[in-house]
Recover the amino acids of this structure.
């Protein structure tokens, strides 16, 4: 019984913290975006339970909140892995092998594109332009840009991540 109470207490604390964070931006210019950024930064993603709270706070519909979240790639809708590999899928990078590189990375990491591996260590995501069009295939590795990424680079990166633990 005590264990169940702890979970409920922790959830209530999280909801209270989420509400307090949202409240900071209700009257601010660009408040919804600022609240979304703050939630994403604080929790690593925007939990579905935040949608009705945001909608109420900013007097808009849940659909409008969801539309804003889904429009911006940087807002995560689920927890990400310890390491995040974003691979460019735009035309310029496709022309120099990004699709093949993506297939290789997913196979080597044992994770589907847009998902987090079951052990929570690695997330591989598509991104549609990192601004390195002349130097593709491009990737963002844990927030840092990389140009002219090869299969050997992916292998070395994944091997390093595997040996971290």
């Amino acid at each position: 019984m005590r264990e169940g109470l702890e979970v409920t207490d922790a959830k209530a604390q999280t909801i209270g913290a989420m509400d307090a964070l949202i409240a900071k931006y209700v009257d601010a210019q660009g408040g919804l975006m600022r609240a979304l950024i703050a939630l994403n930064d604080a929790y690593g993603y925007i939990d579905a339970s935040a949608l009705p709270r945001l909608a109420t706070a900013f007097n808009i519909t849940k659909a409008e909140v969801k539309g804003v979240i889904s429009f911006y790639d940087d807002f995560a809708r689920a927890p990400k892995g310890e390491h995040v590999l974003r691979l460019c899928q735009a035309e310029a990078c496709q022309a120099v092998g990004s699709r093949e590189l993506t297939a290789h990375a997913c196979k080597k990491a044992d994770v589907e594109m847009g998902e987090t591996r079951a052990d929570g260590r690695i997330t591989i995501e598509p991104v549609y332009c990192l601004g390195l069009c002349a130097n593709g295939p491009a990737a963002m590795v844990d927030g840092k840009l990389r140009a002219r990424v090869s299969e050997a680079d992916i292998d070395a990166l994944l091997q390093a991540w595997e040996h971290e633990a």
Q: What stands out?
A: The chain has a mean pLDDT of 91. The chain has two domains: 2-71, 83-164. Strands lie at 83-88, 115-116, 122-127, 139-141, 144-146. The CA atoms of residues 33 and 68 lie 8 Å apart.
